[in-house]
Design a protein that fits this description.
The complex is a heterodimer of chains A (179) and B (453). Chain A is mainly alpha-helical and 179 residues long. Chain A has two domains: 107 residues, Rna Polymerase Sigma Factor, Chain: A; 70 residues, Winged helix-like DNA-binding domain superfamily/Winged helix DNA-binding domain (Arc Repressor Mutant, subunit A, Orthogonal Bundle). Helices cover 70% and strands 1% of the residues of chain A. The longest helix of chain A is centred in the middle third of the chain and has 26 residues. The C terminus of chain A is likely disordered. About 11% of the residues of chain B have low confidence. Chain B is of the alpha+beta class and 453 residues long. Chain B folds into three domains: 201 residues, Immunoglobulin-like (Sandwich); 118 residues, Immunoglobulin-like; 104 residues, Immunoglobulin-like (Sandwich), CATH 2.60.40. Classes of the chains: A mainly alpha (179), B alpha+beta (453). Chains A and B meet through α2, α3, α4, α5 and α6 of A and β1, α1, α2, β18 and α6 of B. β1 of chain A pairs parallel with β1 of chain B, so a sheet runs across the interface.
Chain lengths: 179, 453
């Protein structure tokens, strides 16, 4: 059985409430989930919180996945929503209350990428993350965010250009040529 | 570096493997517990039987906090009962430090032997460790026992509780742990705990115990430090800290305007503001709620299991979630219609309502920071149209949501009516989802400084 078929089989089993298959799937995508969460929330504790909440929500609603091929998109969707939930709380807290002490970031690594991504428009960031880090096809991104395919392409193009600007004119090599 | 590879950078983000595995495990455990309560018969029985004990919480990584989880499904009120699902319990530390008292009581019924092997009373937590032998081979979800604490004991009137303890096989032995967090009831340092199991691994029976426990030495520090926030009309007082041998608990009181319940999440910080424990799922039990003519007062207890706070200076950071009651809005309401609580900065303004016999189109704006991918499902889930003002019964109409301007946070919600109506404007009412967004938008309060001597 090739890897893709094996993955599909795992998703099928997970949909039928096979806990072991679900766990295997999550472990398979765990680093990706964590890294994407980190890109959004920018600290280890919040990223771990997001992953845990995502696993929990995915576990109780895996039965909703109708087509195994959409599993990754579905899981990423839950993850990103959780990221925004955390970000939303952080933003409101930071904006509305000036009396909060500045929370020391638990970041140990200063990554240009994360800083650059966090300064992008949210639309560009979502599209770049889904396309580059989770291999979600453009069509699915369009349906996920609720925009047209052409808009996805525009966001990708503009997002890359903004990233380049953020990083002082450095070019990104497109790891994926097309979808 | 002349070129920057996006995916390479992404792959260089360090992954805390051990913590990640643990969080995945905890997420799954949380999910399993949630699924447990979907068994309707048991849930109904538990909820009915527990009655007043709803203000108390049983917690353990082995125990299924079914009441807590059931309550967590109740919108608004439930958030308080979503605790401890991710946190190690007091018993973990007590076992590691070998501080539990050996018990060795055995009860047998229908071929199953249940043994209480040890017990502990630490800070505000009582715990029992059990083993089971002679159990049938059943599905994982049935590997549990239904137990009642304090049944028929007048000393604990109003605090009796019924819960599930989940058994796990460790080195061939079925083990379970029950933890009980004390509420307002004051107990003596040495007491006997009546406990009876009535359903073990799906087998009905009677396994009764009367377990002696003695409280481990604990340090209690009284503070009475209050922080006030006039904008949110809320104050939080750190009343007391109990430092046990395997846990630390904080007693605090929240006062808020009578018309709303203020729920508080706590984060423990060191004196420089660096986070020590982020209590992200509210490991808090509500000990007592009262309402005066003007105020809602809630006494709460936050227990950090498996954590003994060292001497030093700290900050306890409360974050506030406000639970409001809102009423559906008539479609005939003059526009623009502004919805804003006196104590929360979230504002929602309905700018236009267009009705036709087939549909209702509502345009509105809000000052929430929700972002595009999150906001649409949030609005879809919380906004609806209903006929009359009775509570929703499943026939409420959910909208199709369009983002008009993401930066200005303006939206359009389109509701398709099930059948054409000439009297749409008079018949239908709009629930905007304002209170839902308010409770999901926490507000940080000033941190409370305290010293552990």
């Amino acid at each position: 059985m090739d890897l893709r078929t094996e993955h599909t089989e795992l998703v099928r089993r997970a949909i039928k409430q096979d806990e072991e298959a679900f766990e295997q799937l999550i472990l398979l995508h765990s680093e990706q989930l964590y890294r994407t969460a980190y890109v959004y929330v920018k600290n280890e504790q919040d990223a771990l919180d997001v992953v845990q909440e995502t696993v929990y929500k995915a576990f109780i609603s895996i039965g909703q996945v109708k087509e195994p091929k959409y599993f990754v998109t579905w899981l990423t969707k839950i993850l990103i929503r959780n990221c925004y939930r955390v970000l939303n709380q952080q933003t409101v807290v930071a904006d509305l209350i000036e009396q909060i002490p500045v929370k020391e970031s638990s970041r140990e690594e200063h990554l240009d990428l994360i800083d650059a991504l966090s300064h992008l428009r949210k639309e560009y960031r979502d599209v770049l993350v889904l396309f580059y880090f989770h291999d979600v096809p453009m069509k699915e991104i369009a349906s996920f965010i609720g925009i047209t395919l052409n808009t996805v392409k525009t966001y990708l193009k503009r997002g890359r250009a903004e990233l380049k600007k953020q990083l002082g004119g450095l070019d990104y090599v497109e790891a994926r040529s097309s979808k | 570096m002349s070129k920057h590879d996006l995916q390479n950078d992404y792959n260089q983000i360090p992954v805390p493997q051990a913590a990640l595995q643990e969080r995945i495990r905890q997420g799954m455990e949380q999910g399993k517990r949630e699924q447990q309560i979907k068994r309707p018969k048991r849930l109904r029985r538990l909820v009915v039987s527990t009655g007043l004990a709803a203000s108390l919480l049983i917690t353990s990584t082995f125990v299924i906090p079914s009441l807590a989880t059931a309550m967590a499904k109740v919108p608004l009120l439930g958030q308080m009962y979503r605790p401890f699902l991710e946190q190690e319990n007091t018993g973990t530390a007590i076992s590691q430090k070998q501080l539990a008292t050996k018990i060795d009581q055995v009860a047998s019924d229908n071929g199953i032997d249940i043994q209480v092997i040890d017990a502990y009373y630490d800070g505000a937590t009582i715990g029992l460790n059990l083993t089971a032998t002679g159990v049938p081979d059943v599905k994982p979800e049935a590997r549990s026992g239904l137990y009642e604490l304090f049944k028929g004991d007048k000393r604990f009137a109003g605090t009796e509780t019924m819960e599930l303890v989940q058994f796990k096989q460790v080195k061939g032995v079925w083990q379970g742990r029950i933890e009980y967090t004390l509420g307002e009831t004051k107990l003596q340092d040495a007491i006997r705990i009546p406990i009876v199991l009535t359903d073990v691994f799906g087998v009905k029976g009677n396994w009764a115990f009367n377990v002696p426990v003695k409280r481990l030495p604990a340090v209690e520090q009284v503070y009475g430090t209050t922080i006030k926030n006039p904008i949110y009309q809320t104050e939080v007082t750190l009343d007391k800290l109990i430092q046990g041998k395997g846990s630390t608990s904080f007693d605090y009181t929240t006062r808020s305007p009578k018309k709303e319940w203020a729920r508080v999440e706590m984060t423990l910080l060191d004196s420089s503001g660096k986070e020590i424990i982020h209590n992200w799922t509210w490991s808090t039990q509500s000990v007592k709620r009262t309402r005066t003519e003007t105020e809602a007062i809630e006494q709460s207890r936050l227990i950090l299991g498996n954590y003994v706070i060292p001497k030093g200076n700290y900050l306890l950071q409360p974050s506030l979630r406000i639970d409001l009651e809102t009423q559906p809005i008539p479609l005939t309401e003059p526009l623009p219609y502004r919805q804003q609580s006196e104590t929360h900065p979230l504002e929602m303004i309905i700018t236009s309502i267009e009705t036709t016999p087939e549909q209702v189109v509502v345009e509105f704006s809000r000052n929430s920071r929700s972002l595009q991918v999150y906001v649409k499902p949030e609005i879809r889930d919380s906004m609806y149209l209903l006929k009359g003002t009775e509570p929703p019964d499943g026939r409420e109409i959910k909208p199709k949501v369009t983002i008009l301007d993401a930066d200005k946070q303006t939206f359009r919600a389109t509701f398709q009516l099930p059948e054409p109506s000439e009297h749409t404007r008079e018949e239908y009412y709009l629930e905007t989802g304002y209170s839902n967004t308010v409770i999901n938008t926490s507000l940080a309060l000033q941190p409370i400084p305290f010293t552990v001597k």
